[in-house]
Design goal:
single chain, about 375 residues, alpha/beta, Rossmann fold, 2 domains, six-stranded parallel β-sheet, 16 helices, about 15% strand
Length: about 375
């Protein structure tokens, strides 16, 4: 069996790493048919801090193909990916195309495959924020409706698909990001020096990330968040996405609004460094879906800088607080989160073997 795996952004590298390992483990079993994985990197994230370092740290083989698409508008970027992925699929003729998450790379991979009548497997299927202003929401919905195998991380995701009439090919497998945390948290402790390098004490800082257009492309939202950070007053470590850095610079030029003094902006960090920063933070403030989950895995309270989340389970567990971009709300829930009590079990995200289940289902899905 041959599969083509499509990745393009750093969360997808993390989600794909346990599956690639599970494929290698599967291939070592003499009684199982071999699975050949062709790894295609679209180039959606393309600099070292956003891309290559993740392959290095996660034991992912170098991509077989890097399409080098780069940044651009949603339409241009998705169109370029669609053209180039189609060329790859016509050459490789895989049995399955595997896509991850909700990025433009996900949608382009799913569309290219389904139009060539190649079955699609979607890892992290069934997520819904129910906010159609998010480009990611359209990517999720369309990719799910293109897919023949839908690998869901939670029961909520399964239920979401059923409400849309998708019941065939749906599998509750758990979350491969939980697999990754279990696999790499120990390595992070052994290798990462980020706390020492930044002079940080465990629970002596907050951790923040901002990258979604909802926050970066609307000046009022970005101003509110920065001012909330300033009023919180505590040290906030802020690994900053290149687009976000550019947008803050634009705010500074227009509104004379620099980042507050308690906000320590640093370049994007690798996965192992991020794991260390996450698990030792007192509170995480983020608009990232992946970081909301990782906060939950580590038992660190999370303040979500969006008006909703697709990871409703973390909110129901009392560990994730929705704040949006409202300054007073961010300050309020940050104070509440700092005194939070963990109320639920990690089992809602599986048992840390989602990748093994996915590979087993793929191996048994003969075309």
């Amino acid at each position: 069996m041959k599969i083509v795996t499509i990745v393009g952004a750093r969360p997808q590298f993390i989600k794909a790493a346990p599956v690639s390992k599970a494929i290698r483990d599967h291939n070592e079993k003499e009684d199982d048919p071999r699975i050949t994985e062709v790894l295609v990197h679209t180039g959606q994230h393309y600099d070292h801090g956003m891309s290559q370092i993740f392959f290095d740290e996660l034991d992912i083989s170098e991509p077989d193909l890097n399409l080098g698409v780069g940044s651009g508008s949603h339409g241009w970027q998705t169109g370029q990916m669609l053209v180039r992925i189609e060329e790859v699929l016509l050459e490789e003729k895989p049995d399955y195309v595997v896509v991850y998450g909700d990025t433009n790379s996900t949608l382009a991979g799913a569309l290219a495959a389904v139009k060539l009548h190649i079955p699609v497997a979607h890892v992290e299927a069934g997520l819904r924020s129910f906010n159609r202003e998010m480009p990611e929401e359209h990517n999720r919905v369309l990719s799910d409706h293109c897919s023949g195998l839908l690998f869901c991380p939670t029961q909520t995701a399964v239920d979401n698909l059923a409400k849309e009439g998708i019941i065939n090919g749906v599998h509750l497998v758990g979350d491969t990001m939980y697999d990754a945390v279990l696999q790499f948290a120990g390595r992070a402790h052994q290798r990462s020096t980020i706390l020492k390098d930044l002079g940080l004490m465990p629970k002596g800082y907050l951790l923040a990330t901002i990258h979604r257009p909802y926050n970066t492309d609307i000046p009022g939202h970005l101003r509110n968040i920065l001012r909330a950070f300033e009023d919180i007053g505590d040290l906030i470590i802020f690994p900053i996405h290149p687009r976000t850095r550019k947008k803050i610079a634009e705010l500074d030029g227009k509104y004379n609004l620099k980042g507050p003094e308690n906000l320590k902006m640093i370049d994007p960090v690798g996965y192992l460094d991020m794991l260390m920063l996450e698990q030792h933070a007192r509170v995480i403030l983020t608009d990232s879906g992946g970081m909301q989950k990782e906060a939950y895995f580590f038992g660190v309270p999370c303040v979500t800088l969006r008006p909703e989340t697709e990871w409703v389970e973390t909110v129901e567990a009392g560990w994730n607080y929705i704040a949006g971009s409202d300054k007073e709300r961010i300050i309020e829930v940050c104070g509440v989160a700092d005194k939070g009590k963990f109320k639920s079990s990690l089992q809602i995200f599986g048992e840390g073997n989602a990748a093994e289940i996915i590979v087993q289902i793929l191996s048994e899905s003969r075309i």
